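Tokens in:
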């Protein structure tokens, strides 16, 4: 049996409720409402991505928490009304999101809140000001930020994140101009590593599935393991989330990396 917790490293996937995973990760006949319970017996955390598509409710998150062991952790992706589709009344959306996350936090299952910003969120005065206000609105939670635009990779940004105790997400992605480097910049005690796959041909033109259709080889995962070990040394807790969910690749890669890390620790 592979241990779900390996030191301070928690490995999982971005999302869990995929019918396409039946027959590869989930049993063919597993009902959808049993997916999280099954998932939580294998992995130590999950990144909830549905919270980006629709605003979560306190009851909804409390229900999900009740399906999982007490040491299971969930990170939540901030709703799109706060990152991708921001309008004048965004603070009301922030309040609704805050209320739901607080309910999860009260269950003891909250890992952190992920603020993932789109490539078009350029490094401008207005965007810097907005991000500061958003981080203030969510400051009561453990926070990590993922920039998709390399313009944000500046010392003054890192220092600002450190002052707020907000972690910077390290990403594995295709090697394309304009995307951030795969570098570890420590801005808080919380580490977060998102692996998006390396599907360069569909990164700009694909949809939310095809863009991330990629399966890491064992050799690539062994290379990632070195980075995971480095990040673990710099973090009190490290979350590793595979986002290459198409065709069950995320679950398969997460299981392999979890096994590799456990074998290293055991050896």
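Residues out:
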């Amino acid at each position: 049996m592979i241990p779900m917790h390996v030191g301070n490293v928690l490995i999982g996937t971005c999302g869990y409720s995929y019918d396409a995973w039946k027959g590869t990760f989930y049993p063919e006949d597993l009902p959808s409402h049993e997916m999280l319970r099954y998932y939580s017996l294998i992995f130590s955390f999950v990144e909830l991505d549905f919270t980006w598509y629709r605003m979560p409710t306190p009851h909804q998150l409390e229900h999900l928490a009740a399906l999982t062991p007490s040491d299971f952790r969930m990170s939540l992706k901030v709703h799109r009304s706060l990152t991708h589709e921001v309008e004048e009344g965004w603070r009301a959306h922030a309040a609704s999101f805050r209320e739901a996350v607080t309910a999860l936090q009260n269950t003891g299952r909250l890992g952190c809140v992920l603020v993932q910003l789109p490539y078009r969120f350029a490094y401008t005065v207005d965007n810097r000001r907005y991000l500061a206000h958003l981080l203030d609105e969510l400051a009561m939670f453990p926070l990590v930020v993922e920039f998709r635009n390399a313009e944000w990779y500046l010392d003054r940004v890192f220092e600002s994140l450190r002052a707020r105790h907000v972690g910077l997400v390290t990403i594995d992605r295709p090697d394309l101009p304009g995307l951030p480097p795969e570098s570890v910049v420590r801005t808080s005690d919380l580490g977060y590593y998102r692996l998006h796959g390396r599907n360069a041909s569909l990164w700009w033109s694909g949809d939310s599935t095809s863009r991330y259709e990629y399966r890491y080889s064992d050799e690539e995962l062994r290379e990632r393991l070195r980075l995971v070990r480095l990040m673990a040394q710099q973090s009190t807790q490290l979350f590793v989330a595979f986002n290459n969910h198409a065709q069950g690749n995320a679950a398969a890669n997460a299981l392999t990396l979890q096994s590799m890390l456990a074998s290293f620790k055991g050896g």
